[in-house]
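Reader question, answered in our methods column.
A reader sent in the components of a multi-part assembly and asked whether the whole thing could be modeled at once rather than chain by chain. We filled in our standard form and ran it. Here is what they sent:
COMPLEX SIZE: two components
ENTRIES:
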Amino acid sequence: MGENEQIKALFERVCYDNSVQAYNELYIALCTRLIHFSASIVSSYHLAEEIVSDVFLSLWQKKNELSHVQNPVVYLYVSTKNRSLNTLQEQKRHQHDSLDELNTDMLAIAPEAENGMVSAEVSQKIERAIRSLPARCQLIFRLIKQDRLSYREVAELLNISTKTVDAQLTIAVKKISLAIRFDLSDETAQTYLRLDS
Amino acid sequence: MSFTDTMDQEKLYALLAREMAGILTTEEAEDLRQLLQQYPDASYIREVFSQNWTPAGKQYSPQQVQQLMEKHQQRLQQISEAEPYTEAPEPRRHWGWYSGIAAGLLILLALGGYWRYGQQKKTPVVLSQLVTDKRMRSQILLPDGSRVWLNAGSKLDYPPQFAAHQPREVTLEGEAFFVVQPDAERPFRVHTKTFQIRVLGTSFNVRAYPLEDSAVASLVQGSVEVVLNDASKQVVSLKPNEKLTVPVHPATEQTENIVAVHTPLVIYKSKLTTLQDSIITETAWVQNKLAFKHLQLDKVVTMLEQWYGVEINFSNNRKKQLYFTGVFESESLEEVLNALETTLSFSWHKDADGKIWIN
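And here is the structure of the entire assembly that came back:
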C-alpha cells in the first residue's frame, strides 16, 4: 500500500468509524510536513504548530461531514494554507489571500550529508542553489521532493496548472544540477563526467 | 557545446524532475536511459535526487513529534469535554481512548474475576503493522493506550482494536520498549520467535532481532513472565531491573522461511546495566541515546549499523574482541567512531562505496 493510500485509508477510518487510533496515526504521519508548510507562510514554528493542531481539531469535529473528501492530503494542506493565511491576516491586519510572501527558511531541504553519496560540501551547495530559487519554486520543489505530493495535488493546492508545476520543478532540478555537476571531485568526475566539449 | 546538446540537457532536467515526482512514463524512462548514457555525469545528479533529503532548518525528532501529539491530544480532550452528550448514540468508540481506560475499569467491575488465563479464542483479525527501517525509530499508541517505542529495523504486528475479554496480543521482530496500560481483564502478550511475554501493566524492553544470537527481555517496572517457545515451555518470572537473555541460533537465509524454533542453549537472568547512575543501557535508545557498557566491539558495531544505517566491516577480526563503554546522544557516526578511535586500540576508514572498515 502506497503512502497516499495509507493516508486515505486512515482518513476513511476517522470519518466512518470515528477511529481515534487512525486519527492519531494520521496526525503523526502528516503533522511535521504541515507544520513546515504553515511555518513558511506565518514565519513561526510556534504559530504553525498551533495552526496544524487547529486543523486536526477541526477535522475531528467535522469528521462525519467529510466523507465526500476525495483527497485527504490535499484537504489537509488546503485547510492548513487557509488557516495560516487567516492567522497572518489577523496578525498583520491586512489582506493575505495568496502565498506571495513565503519565508523560505522554513522550506529549504538538502540531501543528508555523509550518507556515503553526498558530502557536507555538496549538500551545502545544493541548499544554496535551492535558496537562490524564487520562493514559489522552492515551495513546489519541497512539496514534490519532500512531501511527496503529486503534480495534481500541488496544482490543486496552489491553484496553478500541472504544466506550471512541471516547468517550475524542472527549473529547480536544473539549478541544483548545475550547482553540483561542476563540483564533483576529480575522482568522482572520472567515474561520472565525460566533458562534452 | 552544440545546440542539440542544450536541447538534450533541458530534456534531461525535465525527465529527472518527472522521475523525482514519480510520473515518468515508460517511453520517458527509455529517453532518460539514453540521455544518461550520453551524459554520464547526470547519473550522479540523478542518484542525489533519489536520496532521502531532510529539512535544512528545523527538524522534528520523534520525541518532539510525540510532544506535539500529546499537546494536541490535551486540546482535543478539552474540546471533547466541553461538548454536550448529544453525540452519544454514535455507533462506537466516540469517547476516544482516554475514556477507554475508564471503560476498561467498568467492565472489570462488571465481570470481576472473569478472565481466564491461557485461554485463547482465536478470531481472525486483520493486523496492522508498524515497520521501521534502519536509522529510523518510531513510536505508537496502541488502541488500549499502551505505548510502544520501536527501534530501528523492527516490525510490530498489532490488531487495530483489541477484543474484549481476550488477551491483548502483539508480535514483535526486532526491538521495542513497551509501557503497557494496566488492564487485568486483558493481559498483554508480546510474541517473538523465541519467547512470549505475559504482562499485566508494566514497562519493559524486548530485543529479538532475527539475525542476533540471543533474545533479551528487560524489565524496568512491574512484573512479567517470559514463556519460552521451545518444547520445554519453561516460564521465567522477572522482577524490576532484571533481564533474561535467551541464546538462539541466529536465523540464516536458508532457515529463515522454515518455521523452526531452536532449543535455547543456556538461558540466564542478569541485572540491567546502568551507566552514569541513571542511564539504563538496555533502554537508552528510547531516549534517543546510544549507550553501551563494557560491550564487545562487534556488538557495538551492530548497534552502530542499525543506528546510522551503514555497513561496518572488520579488516582485522581480532578487533572484535575489544570492549567499549560509551553514551552518545546527537553525535554523527564519524564523531562516535573518532571517539572510540581515541582509545588507540583501532583505526577506521570509509571506502569509496561508503562502507566503514575497522583495522
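What stands out: Residues 184-197 of chain A have pLDDT under 50 and may be disordered. Chain A touches chain B through 61 residues (CB under 8 Å).
Send us your own complexes using the same form.
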